[in-house]
## 1
Amino acid sequence: MTPVPVAIGPVDSPLLAEAVTRGGGHVTSLDQAHALVWDAGTEGFPASLPASVHWVQLFSAGVEEWFAAGVIARHPDVVWTSAAGAFSATVTEHALTLLLAGVRSLPDQITATTWRQQEFFGRVGTLRGACVGILGAGGIGRALVPMLTAVGATVVAVNRSGTPVPGAEVTLPASRADEMWDRIDHVVIAAPATADTRHLVGAPELGRLGPASWVVNVARGSLVDTDALVAALRDGAIGGAGLDVTDPEPLPDGHPLWSLPNAIVTPHCSNPPAVRPPAFADHVATNVARFAAGEPLIARIDPAAGY
Amino acid sequence: MTPVPVAIGPVDSPLLAEAVTRGGGHVTSLDQAHALVWDAGTEGFPASLPASVHWVQLFSAGVEEWFAAGVIARHPDVVWTSAAGAFSATVTEHALTLLLAGVRSLPDQITATTWRQQEFFGRVGTLRGACVGILGAGGIGRALVPMLTAVGATVVAVNRSGTPVPGAEVTLPASRADEMWDRIDHVVIAAPATADTRHLVGAPELGRLGPASWVVNVARGSLVDTDALVAALRDGAIGGAGLDVTDPEPLPDGHPLWSLPNAIVTPHCSNPPAVRPPAFADHVATNVARFAAGEPLIARIDPAAGY
């Protein structure tokens, strides 16, 4: 197969050039290209694209500015893709880290200054054989399933439609989310923040978990009733909480979550800037391979819907 | 297929009964059994086994007491298996936990009491796209490979023979372990402690890692030159160390590893007593299935070799 000619702009990028090559493309100038990978915002984007360019890959998940600037409307014959989903993997890895750290009692071991083996013999748990609920099995939640099964956990997933999530033992529709709570040992919250999901996890739900259960939230703080969570952590009704997002956020100094020994707070940094370029490069490689094979592209923008 | 009749002793165990059933056996009394799962030490073991019993599964990895008591010699026609390898998974999970916690900067986030997002944006890393060296790819090291690849890392494995480890990008024989150091971002030590492996990781090896590299040891403290490690941690020559084992062990109060912010010490508790029964049950299920299918059993004891 002849490599697909792909241009990269506005400036050369060895990381993206490698990704294009990995996806089966070769890097060329814009006037020779069938596709353009654009690694910046709207400023400096070509006023018009050569007729040979059929696809443009943008570098962010949100593309409001591209609609606002009229760039997409000016090129009705071009397929546009965003970076939506490209950054799921690092958030997923963060969720796994928080859950493992909690279940294996890392917070107290990290702060220990003496060899407390007998105590930790009784406190280090395992995800092996545990059942983890994933509340909101979208991009992040779905990517978490193979990581959890790799360590021997089983998964009960909840998504809007109940469409089976690959690798999950059970998938429940959101309307039956209530059934999840009695089946699981731990829960990872990865649902979008909407009016319907506010305080999705409150006192009644936490009350159905056990004293070794960990609650991980990598979605939005508003999904959890913070006061109920603090109470459950204080009482030992649950094992602990690993939170990359909080309500309120930023978490104010002096908030009880800062001092509770069974709460891990990371300051909404599960998707740090430094890890975005390689994640975007992987997304580019995947889409170049799909473009070359004539397959549907990932994260295609719908010009009519505006995202 | 008729279920294989398996006895469990010295007392009933619902966990093991479930494992026998899961493996395709059915639980019966000893006089009816073709196999015996023995969940205790030598004391109380039947003075003689019915001729129908062809296989005995013991409950520990080390079986010195069984040889010492003459039990194995008394039953030359029986196949004996130990629990060797059954407890690898929890040690492997611990190694993954330490590595993820380090790479994602959990120690400093756990001790933080204010929202330091900008700082952690620059410090939270990812295993995705990273290359992890596994020094000693035996049961634990091999089990770690699918966990690492599930989060998007690649693996360079080192084992005695260089026999390719499934899932590793490269496997090197121990004689070429030196080549590993320039290829990897992080290292997990899982090799046995022998005269040859003492201080396998010292100043020269640590010097070939980088300031974001984590060193995880779940094997034995003697494999690492502690003084060289402390120096590398103090200088920031490496990112950090996650140690379930130390030299000396127990780590004495006041040792620098207790206070270095980039060292995580867990007190040799990667395989805590509470997680052993379910791990042993999985081992039993696997071996019952193999026995039923006439396949070679896992962790078969060699009466001549004495282990």
## 2
Amino acid sequence: MTIDWNDTFAKRALKLTASEIRELLKLINQPDIISFAGGIPDPAFFPYDNMAAAYAKIFADPKKRAEALQYSISEGYTPLRQWIAEHLATLGIATHADNILILNGSQQALEFLGKLFIGPGDRIIVTNPAYLGALQAFSLYEPEYVTVTLDETGLDMKALAREFEKGAKFLYLTPDFGNPSGVTLSLEQRKALLDLAYRHNIPVIEDTAYEKLRYDGAAVPSLLSLDTSRLNESAPLSDPTSNGHVIYCGTFSKSIAPALRIGWVIAPTPVVQKLVLMKQASDLHVSTLNQMVMHEVVQEIIDSHTAKLRDVYRARRDAMLAALEKYMPAGVTWTKPEGGMFVWATLPPHLDGAALLAASIEKERVAFVPGAAFFPDRSGRNTIRFAFSLVPPEKIEEGVKRLARLIGEISAAAA
Amino acid sequence: MTIDWNDTFAKRALKLTASEIRELLKLINQPDIISFAGGIPDPAFFPYDNMAAAYAKIFADPKKRAEALQYSISEGYTPLRQWIAEHLATLGIATHADNILILNGSQQALEFLGKLFIGPGDRIIVTNPAYLGALQAFSLYEPEYVTVTLDETGLDMKALAREFEKGAKFLYLTPDFGNPSGVTLSLEQRKALLDLAYRHNIPVIEDTAYEKLRYDGAAVPSLLSLDTSRLNESAPLSDPTSNGHVIYCGTFSKSIAPALRIGWVIAPTPVVQKLVLMKQASDLHVSTLNQMVMHEVVQEIIDSHTAKLRDVYRARRDAMLAALEKYMPAGVTWTKPEGGMFVWATLPPHLDGAALLAASIEKERVAFVPGAAFFPDRSGRNTIRFAFSLVPPEKIEEGVKRLARLIGEISAAAA
């Protein structure tokens, strides 16, 4: 007799299927391809010297190095949590180190929040399109996805009000130039959204992965900052009876480097207490050494380093928007992101993103990500995601030019 | 209106309650207490110089440092997986890098296996007592615990056969001087256990956290090595049709250092494929930098370093067994571990471990962990766990002497 593993697995595990994006990334790692697929930071701009110095500094200190390699508390390295609280205070967010939990990137925050809130069949509201990694994290817990359209005009607030009316475990969204849309929510929409959340008592999960990468325009207050400012002074976020509605996910992956795997979640006390216990049961704590290094590095360079990153990525975004404007045939539209790493394009309805990708790799050696995967309902077949973060400006122009040529050819043949 | 968070949480989250051991550890961090509570490595023996050199080496190499800080594959750093496969081959375990997944310590392996296999009400078999961290990880997925007694004579094989007959999602155990029991399963029991697993097609999760810390006696082959040797040559573990029944959890936390958070799981191909997808959805991958450092360090020092650790901890175990023999009153019994970090003691039935701890901290300034938490059925009230890994031999004698005096006094008063 042999084990039939699929019979052995829990029902939730059947939701685990390979990510199209990840599988794709494995195939296009060839030098002659211009790839707009990987929405990841450019390693040319990681702060290597600061990091090397921070590791060396900790190993040179007998007390610090012992702490750095030993088991630690699940909440995360206290000085790092304090630094985050102080740093966010400068951005108008009134929080407290006790409400901050350090996790393995904000991806782990999403997975934990799925595990904390979602039972089979529970309604959760996500944007259409939404970050694929969030959908992967949530899907394990078998939710019913309810979608609200997100486009250049922001969120469909009427649809949101309708869905809030019906109830949901939470709303998840990325308010600032999110992956994949690049769209930013206006202050008015944020306030209206929070009003709705309070009216229906529905938690809002705010993903701020790209928040530091704003290239122009004024920063819009985060949902958490709006939430903490409306909380009564007698019950701030750290008060067990605080009525905060926003759960905030942050990360150093885009502002410093991803592979230390350090992100965080900020939540009202009853939520963060559960998440700390979840962290303990899941993997005890984030690497103490890495947390200590991150604390050293961000204290020193967060502002100067992210300013440098903004200059680099702004030039790439500008190159991409200029090239799209210059080369794309009529019928193709795209978002104009104020920050982040992505431009989201809508093709003429007769075009399929996945088919276009296959043709584009074969004929033009240009890669991007087809959009359907970002829609829980698998609509958006005629959308594609461009990431400009990894490609120098001159190559961006060349890549967009080639892809535009291909789209023109296909459209002409279909006409 | 305010959010009633407990109404919002999924049912599984209500299982999350504070670990008694962790809460306890927060209280006893006072210099005058002799603590046998924390079952963690002694930081005096972490390989600081080798680690510092490995971090410096990676940052000095432009290609390596870029890889070290960038997003990476969820499977884990390939050279580290290859090293583990080669190292285990020297211990008689025939496996393959493709069947190895790097995780945030073996704790994450346990959490993932709970998530992979357990649906609400599913039967899983654990030893009585069992590793508390495993019970915490599994409990989130709402299993029905079935327990099989583990004591100085090993596993209750009759009870195991009876429970296997009724079916279960898996059996979880630590065959070598586990936490908390310190007991080692004989080769005969391992073979019989595997025969039963094959007969009833029940996966066996083997936790090998302490495997490198054997102080005397000959190593007993791991369950995975017995499993891979009985697999047909035409279907080794890496074959998708392999009939392997054992899932092996390993870690560097006890042999090198815990806070890099690096462990691994080895499983038949259909299982490891699901676990890789789970890793991707959960937190993408373990810190690449830490994996590269661990790869540098273990290549260089795994044998010499663990030999040193064995000398240190052997002396402490010997001191603890000698002190127990010298001071403990009649009616107290304890295990004689061949390795690991723990001695498990059974008190006279009228004594309660938790009450003894309270008295012991107050009167004798000695700490340990009451045993009940390690029993899913909360039996074992008259058991306690001693960890000897953090205490120098002379303090061990003093601590045992004081506690023995207290037990003697309480027993005399009760008689």
